[in-house]
């Protein structure tokens, strides 16, 4: 199950991604927003990230104007490794190396086709483990130290 959310800056992109998820029979829960009316992104980011953090959802996708605000908020939630992605190489690498569990996208930054390619790659790429596990453990230690 994927949790997906957006503010007004990412609303159109969220709807586009939902079309992709529907077409590929990927289950998701849409936490909003449901129009292009202005809405603050922190609550949406927290909702999606929390669902991933507590294990209700396997991964999350967040869209705002730049993807930056969403990624800042999501990365404050325990266990969240949110990646702001704008290219296909990073989409693959951040799954393989960082085991990123939330994907952030900028609806005012990237084109539709690129965004869908990024989503496709990110959802289908597995974490490769090995020495990267040690690095993720170090992230956990830092998270514990500053909680
Ligand atoms: C909203 O205008 C915009 O600030 C927001 O979508 C996002 O880009 C924040 O990082």
Write the SSE topology.
Layout: E1 2-6, H1 11-23, E2 28-30, H2 41-53, E3 59-64, H3 68-74, E4 82-84, H4 88-96, E5 102-106, H5 112-124, H6 131-145
Parallel strand pairs: 1-2, 1-3, 3-5, 4-5
Helix pairs in contact: 1-5, 2-3, 4-5
Keywords: Isomerase
Organism: Clostridium beijerinckii
Protein name: Ribose 5-phosphate isomerase B
Q: What's the overall average pLDDT, rounded? A: 98
- How many independent structural domains? 1
Task: Give the structural class.
Answer: alpha/beta
Q: Helical proportion? A: 40-55%
Name every ligand kind in the structure.
Answer: D-ribose
The coarse silhouette is globular
CATH class membership: Alpha Beta
Report the C-alpha radius of gyration, rounded: 14 Å
Notes on the protein architecture:
The chain has 147 residues and is of the alpha/beta class. It has one domain: Ribose 5-phosphate Isomerase B, Chain: A (3-Layer(aba) Sandwich), CATH 3.40.1400. 48% of the residues lie in helices and 15% in strands. The protein contains 6 helices and 5 strands, in the order βαβαβαβαβαα. It has helices at 11-23, 41-53, 68-74, 88-96, 112-124, 131-145, and strands spanning 2-6, 28-30, 59-64, 82-84, 102-106. The protein has a 5-stranded parallel sheet, with helices on both faces. α4 (88-96) links the parallel β4 and β5 (102-106). α1 (11-23) crosses α5 (112-124) and α4 runs parallel beside α5. The model has no long low-confidence stretch (mean pLDDT 98). The structure holds D-ribose. D-ribose binds at residues 7, 9, 41, 64-66, 68-69.
